């Protein structure tokens, strides 16, 4: 029998991201990050394919990735504003975990389900970080979908994609709560 966990339920009802630009040092140390990655890896995964892995982007790598974002943005013809906005997550970043979707060959498990599992890992990592008392934010940016950035920046193989950058550091100024969906309007009950 499952035991009710009211604290977990309360957390899920109140949780919210903290915008990456509001995060301040310190970021979690490696020994503090491992339990968060462990929690994230405990995510639904049809067929036990483990279609994901982690790349931890530490402070020392941020400038290289910011500069690479600029190089890729120029090659793509992005505007200076788009480039500045995209590189800012690394210019201001303290620590980010790139959750990498790793498609595994399978006759049984469709590729889309492996993508969903990688998304689940992103949310689980975000929630683990928030539950541990860190500020955290799931970002992408156009560079996360750019092959040059993926291969040059993080050494990804062709079968790999960036599911998200989960920025984790200390919470600065808490932003106001954002409007939340009307669950009743989104829900249809089917009873026959
Ligand atoms: C796949 C994905 C990519 C996202 N990328 C960005 C992004 O690049 N920039 C941004 O400002 N927000 C982005 N967001 C939204 C932020 O995570 C946002 O802070 C979040 O929706 C706040 O929701 P919460 O408080 O319910 O966690 C992204 C969200 C998802 C799911």
From TrEMBL:
Co-factor binding comment: Binds 1 FMN per subunit.
One Pfam family matching this protein: Nitroreductase
A single MF term (Gene Ontology): oxidoreductase activity
Enzyme class: oxidoreductase
Cofactor: FMN
EC number in record: 1.-.-.-
Domain of life: Bacteria
Residues where FMN binds: 15-17, 42, 46, 138-140
Record-annotated Nitroreductase domain positions: 25-168
Annotated keywords: Flavoprotein, FMN, NAD, NADP, Oxidoreductase
Family the entry assigns: Belongs to the nitroreductase family.
Stated name of the protein: Putative NAD(P)H nitroreductase
């Amino acid at each position: 029998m499952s035991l009710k966990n009211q604290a977990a339920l309360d957390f899920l009802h109140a949780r919210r991201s903290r915008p990456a630009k509001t995060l301040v040092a310190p970021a979690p140390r490696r020994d503090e990050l491992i339990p968060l990655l462990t929690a994230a890896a405990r995510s639904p995964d049809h067929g036990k394919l483990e279609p994901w892995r982690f790349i931890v982007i530490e402070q020392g790598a941020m400038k290289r990735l910011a500069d690479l974002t600029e190089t890729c943005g120029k090659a793509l013809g992005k505007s200076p504003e788009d480039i500045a906005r995209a590189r800012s997550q690394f210019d201001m970043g303290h620590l980010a975990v790139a959750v990498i979707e790793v498609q595994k060959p399978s006759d049984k498990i469709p590729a889309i389900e492996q993508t969903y599992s990688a998304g689940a890992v992103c949310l689980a990592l975000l929630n683990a970080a928030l539950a541990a008392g860190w500020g955290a934010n799931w970002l992408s940016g156009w560079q996360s979908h750019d092959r040059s950035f993926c291969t040059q920046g993080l050494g990804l193989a062709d079968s790999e994609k960036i599911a998200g950058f989960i920025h984790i550091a200390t919470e600065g100024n808490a932003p106001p709560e954002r409007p939340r969906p009307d669950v009743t309007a989104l829900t249809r009950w089917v009873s026959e």
